[in-house]
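Data deposition worksheet. Section B asks for the primary sequence of the deposited chain exactly as it was used as input, without tags or linkers unless they were present during the calculation. Section C holds the resulting structure in C-alpha cell form. Section D is free text for depositor observations; keep each observation to a single sentence. Incomplete worksheets are returned to the depositor.
Section A, Depositor: J.P.
Section B:
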Amino acid sequence: PGLDVRDDVLCISGHSTVEIAQTERVPVFVTDLAWIGVQAAKLRYALENAQLRPCVRLAIKAQREPEILEYIRSLGADDPGGTVGIDACSPNEVDLALEYGWQPHEISCTGTNMSDEDLKRVIDSGAHINLDLLSQLDRYGRLAPGSRAGIRVNPRAGAMWGGRKSLYADVKPTKFGIYEEQLDDAIAIAQRHGLVIDTVHMHVGDGYLGDRLDEIDRAAAFAARATQRLRAEGFPIEEVNTGGGVGVRLHDDDPPMDLDAWADIFARHLGPLDVVVGTEPGNFLTKESTILLAEVVTVEDRLGERFVGLNVGWNVASFKFLYDMPFTIVPCRNPLAKPPGTATISGNINEGNDLFAEGIPFPAVEEGDYVAILNAGGYNQAMQSDHCLRPRARTICF
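Section C:
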C-alpha cells in the first residue's frame, strides 16, 4: 500500500515518480511517512495480541532524516501506547534523539567498544544504557556506581536474511554481548559497584524472516534464563530487549515474516516473567517506506551484456554493498513491462564494484529515463558519504 502503478507509471503515496524526478534534482529519496507508522503499529499489535507489554524503538542508525524523525516522534501523540522510542548506539545518536524531542527515558543506548568518554556522555544525558562487555560493565560501574543499567547478552543464536549465519550472535565468538559462561562475572562486577541491572538486551540478527524463527526461539529461551538468573541475585529486570533484525522481503521467493509467530515465541518464554518486551528495528520500520529515484545516463551493450548506468552510486545507497543484500530496481515508466533480457545496473562511482545489480531481468529503458530503487529507507540516507565527491541525495516526504 502506498506504492503502486497507475497509467503505467510507478507512484508513491499517490504521486507520480516521473513527475517527481522531472521537478526534483535526482538522485532523490522519496518517503511515504505513513508506512512507517503502519509498520510500528504492526509490531506493537503483534506483541499486545500475545499478551505482552511492548516497547517499540527506532534504531536511529538506520534512519535519521529530519522530517522522518519528526514524523516518528509524532507517533503516539493521540495514543501514548503508540509512542516509538529510540535505540541509539553512540553518544552522538543520543544527542540527536534529544534534539528531536525524545526524553532521556525514551532512549535506549547500546553501544559496542564504548570509551570512557562515550560512557560519561551517555551517563550525563540521562538515557538508559545497556553494557555490552564485561570490561565495559566494570568501567561503567566505576564511573556511575549505584546507578541503573542493562546488560547485553549473547545467546549464541541469531539469524540473518537469506539463511546466513548471524554476525552478532552465533557459535563463533562475536564482539557483541556477555555469554552465559560470563554471567557470574557480570553479576559480581555489578554487585561490586552497586549497579541496579534492570534490562536484558540481545542483538541477534539482521533482516531475518519467518523461516529463521527457530533461532529466535533459542535466543528468547536464553534471555529468559538470564533474566531468571539475574533476578535470583536481586536485580529487578524490568525489560527484555529483543534487539532489532526483524526483516522485510527482498525477493519474491522470500518467506513472509509472521509477526504473530514471532511474538508468540517471546510470549512463551518471557510472558511468565512479566517484563516489558522491547524491539528496536531499523529496516522493518523504514526500509519499505522509501524509494530512491535516479536518471539513466548510459544504455550500452558491452560484450553482449546490457549495461544501464545511473547518475547515482554507492556513496548514496550503500546498503547492498555493505550487507550484500539485494535492491529491487524498476523503471519509473512501465515498471511491469516484460523484460527483453537481462541488464547490469551500474553507478557513477569510479570503483569496479559500484554495481547495483548484475544480470537481472530488466525492462527496456533509454538514456534520460528514470528508475526507482525500492526498499531504500533503511541504512542508505544515514550512511551516505562523499566518496569521489559525488553529491549526496536529499529526501522528500509525503
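Section D:
The CA atoms of residues 184 and 197 lie 13 Å apart.
The mean pLDDT is 96.
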